[in-house]
Amino acid sequence: MRGSQVWQDSIGELQNLERHPVGRQRRGRARRKTIAMTIRKIRCFDDLHSIPDKGAPIVTLFSGGLDSSYLLSFLFEAGFTNVTALCVDLGEGVEAGTLETTAQRFGAELLIEDGRVEFADRYVKPALKAHAKYLDIFPVSSSLARPLIAQRAVSAALERDAVAVLHTANQSQNSLRRLNTAIAAELYSGLFGSPYEYSALSREDKARTLARYGLSYYTGRKLSGDANIWCREFESGPLDNPEDFKLPEDAFTWSRRRDGLAPRSISLGIEHGELVEIDGQAVAFADAIAQLNELVGSYGFGRFLGLEHLDEGEKVLEVREAPAAFILMQALRHLETATLSANSIILKQALERSWTLEAVEGRWKSDVKLAAEAGILSLTQRVTGSVRFDIDHQSCLPSSIRAEKPLYITDRDAWEIEKARERGTRSRADLLRNYSDVAPEFTDRLPVMESVA
Questions:
Q1: What is the pLDDT of residues 85-125, one digit of tens each?
Q2: What is the structure's pLDDT at 236?
Q3: CATH code linked to domain 254-304+321-340+382-403
């Protein structure tokens, strides 16, 4: 069995600890230290079988989806008796009852933590300022969530002296390397990783296993997905083949068009690059995202589609819905254009690309990301004002861009007259300089005058 040999030198030490208890905390630290000296990563289901102490605490990320539910069933069947199923609620709408039913069926403790506000303020805000879109195709989403999820998972593991932190990403999902990178960045000393990295099971096989335990509602699921308050994304199933795919309308939640809605306007107030008001009313950022997802999405806006690369260059198709991101990125860019010079915007876009690449690759603490973020923050300090959109089922376009410190012209005729007067009145020295630069041979032919109008 893969990985079993690496445990042989460690079993005796663990057994001695159990025979001579010196406190749960010390035993837990010793477990993590012993495990760290053998195999650090969990990469297949055989690796889980190789853990000698089936009573050792384990924390596994749990969304209630097919993969995380199957992992609970596997741990249960393998004899693990101290499993915590951690769900970090990032605003996707957790069905606590369903999660509790599945966790209890497999003898796991369900732990639901609310990360909605922290996720919005610490991760989505800087991503919005950075206009974080993958290759300018769709908003970056799950990449933003991985550091927070990893932090919560490691925190739960340390509180329980857990020997392992598990997740369920596979090789066709970039979350595999992002979650592993994020957990490693927390300096967790125990095992971590996904048994799905080297163990590939069909959706049908996993669903059949769960059905044996009375969890038959997984059988009809074809799509894999990930969701948070910023974005809902879908992959696999009917999206496996980019050459021929169709996503059912009922897969969408926020961007499903609602008939009978009258056209309306919506005003977004922005201070220093951050959304602070909707239609003149102050609103917390997390609440604003949820409000805009519902409002903008009800007119059918906010859908994205594109191919995303894997770590060795292959591409997979993803579909996303993010109505709030759709309108907020437009609003911020319009206000930046109204406020910043062209050179400043060009610089900011270069910094945005660097920030987004570091975030996508999970390098949240890199010097490049920190430097890019500092530059973006500096440039957005003067971006204050409002943008009003007119929205109906056909279009969602600005009808007002109002900056606190604008660079735009509000009356072009008046500006033309003023500039003509200003530029038409020149001193002889100015004229001589201009003519000498362009045609020095004509300098001596200029009439003698103090100014011309």
A1: 999 999 877 889 999 999 999 999 999 999 999 999 999 99
A2: 81
A3: 3.90.1260.10
Over residues 126-163, the pLDDT tens digits come to 999 999 999 999 999 999 999 999 999 999 999 999 99
Answer yes or no: pTM beyond 0.70: yes
pLDDT at 10 exceeding the cut of 90:
no
Domain boundaries, the chain: 5-223, 254-304+321-340+382-403, 412-452
Locate 181 and state its tokens. 């990178």
Residue 107 near residue 76 (C-beta atoms within 8 A): yes
Tokens of 221: 């699921």
Listed residue (217, 135, 127, 226) closest to 175, CA to CA = 226
How is residue 163 written in tokens? 């020997």
How far apart CA 425 and CA 58 sit, in angstroms, is: 80
| 3-class DSSP assignment, residue 402 | strand
Q: Which of 452, 331, 340, 335 is nearest to 384 (CA)?
A: 335
Report which DSSP code applies to 407: -
318 in Cβ contact with 306 (< 8 Å): yes
The CATH homologous superfamily to which domain 5-223 belongs is HUPs (3.40.50.620)
Query: What is d(CA 142, CA 134) in angstroms, rounded to the nearest whole number?
Result: 11
Residue 115's identity, in one-letter code, is: G
pLDDT of residue 224: 76
- The single-letter code of the amino acid at 275 is L
